[in-house]
């Protein structure tokens, strides 16, 4: 029988449970993707699969789908579909969260319960976001949300499905000033761990920001809640060991750089003692581990609960690491020595299952390929096996550049720092003596351009252009000191670093044409691109930017991360801060708009109408400044897209227009 749990005839949640006999859907229709895959059985409507999770013992599969606006939670066994909950019709909560920031779908160890995160029901709660009375009269009341890519996600709640009783409920006891997410079951199946982000006095954007005040909590099903981590910290990614004894999680500072080097903490659940497994790395030694800068995969433990495996940035690479809890020693598991003809610049851990690691490997000339390998014995190397060779490889050359700034460009507070870049170019120029160079700058600024597959880079090189990707000081993978060195130095240190990298590439690669240079980038990469064509107006021939920061002063009141706007300019942030003339003047001085009158290169602007991080009016400000001076400028407007311009049709449009723009002006 297929159990269908839905709304009762009088509209009361779970008041009626309809049970009907239906043909079972074969388990071969399950699919294997955790997020975003299409799926559905032959006797069920096909929908968008939002989340998926498999139980470890009985191998049950829970699947959350969106079908015609209804969220359905399906439970499958090895015979086929057994239960289906229409969460929308039950009306216990709003939409289920499927994002990577809050979202989860977790089986209890007893495999009789599931938990997930959803938006609190505004109707059933009867209250507004600030505790005021709810109802129809409040439909125009403003509800804060969590910013870019998390629009309409405001008040999350933890929901539990009891598969024995066919009930769905919302857990009580979460502190009122906390928004829960990233929840998982405790070993006893009677309580849950979760990360809680503090949202008072108001919410700040969470996407790409690892510096938000948050804590690790434990919530019993009876409603009692306790905080397990320290005060005034930022925490994320709780991961329970297979034996249920230890919880590891990432920890960082609040405010300051929006993304930073994090420490790995371990909590002994029996003694309640927390200790540091891996600390923040300020200045990594050459060739050594450089710190943790990104989220842990959902499965990252060894079977014996003694090792944690993860990927992280290391200079211009993305590497695979293992840390042993007993010795606290970190070792690299990537293998770029056994086959000198196939070097992967990026190793991304996808999961670990019973000591079998599954990784995605790529390089600038090789699309991602799936590789597997078992955790090795102490001192031994991993034997990696490629499950499927890339569908194609490209005849590109790529090389790493290590760049040291000259004494006059050194940072007095963080002296002696270097940075990196990598160059990708055609193996054989397309009928020309010298190759045009496109400088492709990453955003953030605290992020990284690893030597991995990038379709924009590959497309440009395939068309006969060389591409230089720069990891200026402030990029991740070079230690916390490098990140901190950029605070208060945007528009100066980062601009000079990119220009220094370009000069280094031109000096060391005679095949590059110094008279045909272009610069492209998005967000902070667009900020730097516009700075470069303004500060070096006779150096670059063309520019193409996506959602660039143009005027930090006018961005202050429109961005979802107002704290970063102060921090990047060198000013401390507090929630009650009122803009001062000094701060606004400094932001304006550090912005590309202050050099707009010197710009000569033709500029292509690509703007998302729904960008919450960098308002599209930033690009419009530069558009008007250039238009009024008769400078060549073209603007593409994508009304339904946000900061990342990530819709497939938008990416296609941006790539084609960028190629045509560069072809026209180079």
TrEMBL record:
<keyword id="KW-0963">Cytoplasm</keyword>
<feature type="domain" description="Peptidase S9 prolyl oligopeptidase catalytic">
    <location>
        <begin position="459"/>
        <end position="666"/>
    </location>
</feature>
<dbReference type="GO" id="GO:0008242">
    <property type="term" value="F:omega peptidase activity"/>
</dbReference>
<dbReference type="InterPro" id="IPR001375">
    <property type="entry name" value="Peptidase_S9_cat"/>
</dbReference>
<dbReference type="GO" id="GO:0004252">
    <property type="term" value="F:serine-type endopeptidase activity"/>
</dbReference>
<dbReference type="Pfam" id="PF19283">
    <property type="entry name" value="APEH_N"/>
</dbReference>
<dbReference type="InterPro" id="IPR011042">
    <property type="entry name" value="6-blade_b-propeller_TolB-like"/>
</dbReference>
<protein>
    <recommendedName>
        <fullName>Acylamino-acid-releasing enzyme</fullName>
        <ecNumber>3.4.19.1</ecNumber>
    </recommendedName>
</protein>
<keyword id="KW-0378">Hydrolase</keyword>
<dbReference type="Pfam" id="PF00326">
    <property type="entry name" value="Peptidase_S9"/>
</dbReference>
<dbReference type="InterPro" id="IPR029058">
    <property type="entry name" value="AB_hydrolase_fold"/>
</dbReference>
<comment type="similarity">
    <text>Belongs to the peptidase S9C family.</text>
</comment>
<dbReference type="GO" id="GO:0006508">
    <property type="term" value="P:proteolysis"/>
</dbReference>
<dbReference type="InterPro" id="IPR045550">
    <property type="entry name" value="AARE_N"/>
</dbReference>
<comment type="subunit">
    <text>Homotetramer.</text>
</comment>
<dbReference type="GO" id="GO:0005737">
    <property type="term" value="C:cytoplasm"/>
</dbReference>
<feature type="domain" description="Acylamino-acid-releasing enzyme N-terminal">
    <location>
        <begin position="71"/>
        <end position="393"/>
    </location>
</feature>
């Amino acid at each position: 029988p297929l159990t269908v749990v839905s709304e009762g005839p009088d509209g009361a949640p779970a008041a009626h449970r309809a049970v009907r006999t239906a043909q079972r859907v074969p388990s071969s229709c399950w699919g294997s993707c955790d997020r975003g895959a299409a799926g559905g059985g032959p006797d069920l409507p096909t929908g968008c699969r939002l989340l998926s999770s498999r139980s470890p013992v009985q191998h049950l599969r829970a699947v959350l789908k969106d079908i015609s606006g209804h969220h359905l939670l399906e439970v499958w066994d090895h015979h086929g579909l057994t239960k289906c909950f229409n969460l929308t019709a039950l009306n216990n909560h709003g939409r289920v969260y499927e994002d990577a920031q809050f979202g989860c779908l977790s089986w209890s160890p007893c495999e009789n319960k599931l938990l997930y995160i959803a938006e609190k029901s505004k109707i059933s709660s009867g209250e507004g976001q600030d505790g005021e009375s709810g109802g129809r009269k409040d439909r125009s009341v403003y509800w804060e949300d969590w910013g870019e890519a998390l629009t309409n996600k405001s008040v999350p709640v933890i929901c539990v499905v009891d598969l024995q009783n066919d009930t769905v409920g919302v857990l009580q006891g979460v502190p009122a000033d906390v928004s829960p997410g990233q929840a998982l079951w405790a070993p006893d199946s009677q309580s849950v761990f979760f990360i809680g982000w503090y949202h008072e006095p108001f919410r700040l954007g969470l996407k790409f920001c690892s510096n938000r005040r948050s804590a690790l909590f434990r919530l019993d099903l009876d409603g009692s809640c306790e905080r397990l981590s320290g005060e005034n910290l930022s925490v994320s990614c709780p991961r329970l060991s297979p034996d249920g004894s230890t919880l590891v999680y990432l920890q960082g500072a609040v405010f300051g750089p929006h993304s930073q080097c994090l420490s790995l903490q371990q909590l002994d659940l029996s003694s309640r003692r927390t200790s540091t497994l891996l600390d923040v790395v300020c200045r990594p030694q050459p060739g050594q581990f450089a710190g943790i800068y990104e989220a842990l995969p959902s499965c990252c433990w060894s079977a014996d609960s003694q090792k944690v495996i993860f990927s992280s940035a290391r200079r211009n690479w993305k590497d695979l690491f293992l840390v042993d809890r007993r010795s606290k020693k970190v070792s690299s598991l990537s293998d770029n020595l056994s086959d000198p003809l196939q070097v992967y610049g990026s190793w991304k851990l996808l999961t670990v299952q019973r000591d079998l690691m599954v990784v995605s490997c790529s390089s600038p000339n090789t699309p991602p390929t799936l590789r597997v390998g078992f955790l090795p014995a102490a001192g031994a190397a991993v034997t990696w096996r490629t499950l499927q060779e890339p569908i194609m490889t490209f005849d590109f050359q790529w090389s790493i550049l290590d760049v040291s700034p000259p004494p006059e460009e050194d940072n007095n507070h963080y002296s002696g720092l270097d940075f990196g870049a990598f160059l990708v170019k055609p193996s054989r120029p397309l009928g020309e003596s010298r190759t045009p160079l496109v400088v492709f700058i990453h955003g953030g600024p605290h992020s990284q351009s690893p030597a991995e597959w990038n379709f924009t880079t590959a497309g440009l090189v395939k068309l006969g252009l060389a591409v230089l990707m720069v990891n200026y000081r402030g990029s991740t993978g070079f230690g916390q000191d490098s990140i901190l060195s950029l605070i208060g130095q945007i528009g100066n240190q980062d601009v000079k670093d990119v220009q220094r990298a370009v000069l280094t590439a031109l000096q060391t690669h005679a095949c590059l044409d110094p008279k045909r240079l272009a610069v492209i980038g998005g967000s902070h990469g667009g900020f730097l691109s516009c700075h470069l064509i303004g500060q070096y107006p006779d150096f670059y021939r063309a520019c193409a930017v996506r959602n660039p920061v143009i005027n930090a002063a006018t961005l202050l009141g429109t961005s979802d991360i107002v704290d970063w706007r102060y921090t990047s300019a060198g000013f401390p942030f507090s929630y009650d801060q009122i803009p001062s003339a000094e701060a606004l003047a400094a932001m304006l001085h550090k912005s590309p708009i202050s050099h707009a009158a010197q710009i000569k290169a033709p500029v292509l602007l690509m703007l998302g109408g729904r960008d919450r991080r960098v308002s599209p009016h930033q690009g419009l400000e530069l558009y008007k400044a250039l238009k009024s001076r008769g400078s060549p400028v073209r603007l593409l407007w994508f009304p339904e897209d946000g900061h990342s311009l990530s819709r497939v049709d938008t990416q296609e449009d941006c790539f084609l227009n960028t190629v045509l723009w560069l072809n026209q002006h180079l």
